[in-house]
Specification:
single chain; alpha/beta; Spore Coat Polysaccharide Biosynthesis Protein SpsA, Chain A; 2 domains; 11 strands; elongated
Length: 386
């Protein structure tokens, strides 16, 4: 069910055994504690917002890490340097083949606020994130990518945003980009309705590495990462929060530094990201517009592809489907419908340019389209250069 997460018996079987150790334990495996995923989940289920002890930290930071030996120390140090000191850090070593666990243990030093979880084999970022979130004791849960750095005021600033809005379920921020690309700022969308609408595009919504969550909300609604999704997992997660009635926000400040490098998770997923982004878009359109049939939904997401169907008839079919969405009354999850329309019409315009350049449509086809679409879509075609 949308908004209830994706936890299944299959995903429970997938995670076999996890090795959990205090950051101060020596690196000998005989001193580690082995627990099953069921044991880890049972522990987490007792640590609800209502039953958290007075010693529970305000924030739990979770860092999923896979082959992150080179950068994990910087990520951990950036949490240790936070102006807000009431935190715990859980590093989930996702079956790394390098010395990520040793590097994390060394960076943690004697800081007992740091806990380490290690998988015996690689499970993927969704499963690693779920394990960290399940073990979290904080009132708020923040995620940081293993190759990124949190600026010193990140946790304090995001907690202040939550305290200023009881309905807020998830918040991110802008980020500074550094590494093997020119330094710059990645600006993210502001405002609940705007962010939710832009999940459709998948750009500049809430970056997974800047995410902070209200733990009571995600526990109440059983919001989880889908263990079967290797890419675009953050979009699916945010969609589940939206479906459960949660508000989204971005703090209008740079609070995290994203490192760009060839081995980064984002770069490693580029080849497979496209199909999973399309899956996320189908889910969004179906959630917002349950009256559209599966064929309409499929045609509505085609303009987001890099390669389009090669016929004029296919373009006409896509225009009809988009026009159905434009005139339909959506279910209200807080998304800004005008932004949804703007994104789709913009994509349709770019698609029309490609079809025109390949001599698949011309002005005569636009005249035909104008006869069967709504005034809103007709006005959009008036702006297209065909």
């Amino acid at each position: 069910m949308a908004g209830r997460g994706f936890h299944t018996s299959e995903s429970v079987k997938k995670l076999h055994l996890a090795r959990v150790a205090s950051a101060t334990d020596p690196p000998k495996t005989e001193h580690a504690i082995f627990i099953s995923f069921a044991d880890l989940s049972a522990f987490a289920s007792t640590m609800t917002h209502k039953t958290a002890s007075p010693s529970s930290p305000l924030v739990t930071v979770v860092i999923p890490a896979f082959n992150a030996e080179a950068f994990i120390g910087e990520a951990i140090a950036s949490i240790q340097e936070q102006t807000l000191e009431d935190w715990e850090l859980i590093v989930v070593d996702d079956g790394s083949a390098d010395h990520t666990l040793s590097a994390a243990r060394q960076a943690a030093g004697d800081d007992r606020r740091v806990r380490l979880i290690r998988f015996d084999r690689n499970q993927g970022i969704s499963t690693a994130s779920n394990a960290g979130f399940d073990a979290a004791r904080g009132h708020f849960i923040a995620r940081l990518d293993s190759d990124d750095r949190a600026l010193p005021h990140r946790l304090a600033t995001q907690v202040a945003a939550f305290r200023g809005n009881d309905r807020l379920a998830a918040a991110g921020s802008h980020a500074r980009i550094f590494g093997d690309v020119p330094d710059g700022i990645a600006l993210c969308a502001l405002g609940d309705g705007n962010i939710k609408a832009r999940l459709l595009d998948g750009l500049n919504t809430i970056s997974g590495g800047t995410l902070m969550l209200r733990r009571a909300f995600i526990r109440k609604h059983d919001v989880r990462f889908d263990d079967h999704i290797p890419s675009a997992e953050d979009l699916h997660y945010l969609t589940s929060i939206m479906a459960a009635g949660g508000e989204l926000a971005n703090v209008d400040q740079v609070l995290t530094e994203h490192r760009s490098h060839r081995a980064s998770f984002t770069n490693s997923q580029r080849d497979i990201a496209g199909p999973w982004l399309q899956t996320a878009r189908r889910r969004l359109v179906s959630l917002w517009y349950p009256g559209l049939d599966a064929d309409d939904v499929e045609n509505i997401v085609i303009p987001f592809l890099k390669v389009y169907p090669g016929s004029t008839d296919a373009f006409f079919t896509i225009v009809r489907a988009v026009d159905k969405l434009v005139v339909a009354k959506p279910d209200d999850f807080g998304q800004d419908t005008s932004v949804v329309h703007e994104i789709l019409i913009d994509r349709l315009g770019k698609m029309a340019d490609i079809y025109r350049d390949n001599e698949l449509i011309d002005a005569s086809h636009v005249r035909v389209i104008r006869n069967f679409v709504s005034p809103t879509t007709r006005a959009a075609f008036d702006r297209f250069d065909i």
